[in-house]
Design a protein that fits this description.
single chain; alpha+beta; Deoxyribonuclease I, Chain A; globular
Length: about 200
């Protein structure tokens, strides 16, 4: 990550009067939340009943900012099928298939994209009626230790430079302890160490 980006993150997260302009809705604009209820392991949001489940969940709990992973829906269909009237952003300019989709309601949140990779999207975010901004990073880690290395490098650089509130949430595709994973492949030492090192860096 470039130095000027880190300076933006530091300034934005530590300035109480920061005003973040809403992001215009384009084909590349979609934010991400990690709530997977209604999404399922098969079919993603392609399946109509899954789309209805997501809508019902958002309405029931009053969710105004959400991130969805592995939607399997083309970027041009996301807004019309599930989030009509919402602002939205995706990682579609980075990856051929949308991995992270982040919709939000403009009346409640102001959101500005500051950094996108194939494993994370970072936003400066604030409540529409509140002056202090915070950073939120939605993560969807790739599925091998080697391919996740750039993710940890990005997150640790952020941790070293960001001042102020910062939320990191998502699917890291890694665990801290072998007992956290049920089924699947055996835990590799590298994935535990990398995740642990990142958390230690954040605590400093």
């Amino acid at each position: 990550m470039e130095t000027d980006l880190l300076q933006i993150l530091v300034k934005a997260s530590s300035t109480e009067t920061q005003v973040v302009p809403p992001l215009e809705q384009t084909e590349h604009n979609v934010p991400a939340a990690t709530r997977e209820e209604g999404q399922g392991q098969e079919g993603g949001l392609i399946v109509p009943n899954k789309q209805e489940d997501v809508k019902n969940f958002l309405h029931k709990h009053g969710v105004k900012l959400v991130a969805l992973l592995k939607t399997k829906v083309k970027k041009e269909n996301i807004a019309s099928r599930v989030f009509a009237g919402w602002q939205w952003h995706t990682d579609a300019e980075i990856v051929p298939k949308v991995r992270v989709c982040v919709p939000w309601q403009e009346a409640t949140f102001q959101v500005h994209v500051v950094h996108v990779t194939d494993q994370l999207i970072c936003y400066i975010t604030k409540l529409a009626d509140y002056t202090k901004a915070f950073l939120i990073t939605f993560v969807h880690g790739l599925n091998t230790v080697a391919r996740r290395l750039p993710l940890w490098e990005d997150l640790m650089r952020m941790a070293q430079n960001i001042q102020g509130p910062w939320c990191v949430i998502g699917d890291f595709n890694a665990v801290l302890h072998p007992g956290e994973r049920i089924g699947g492949e055996d835990i590799q030492y590298g994935e535990v160490v990398d995740f642990s090192n990142y958390l230690e860096q954040c605590d400093r």
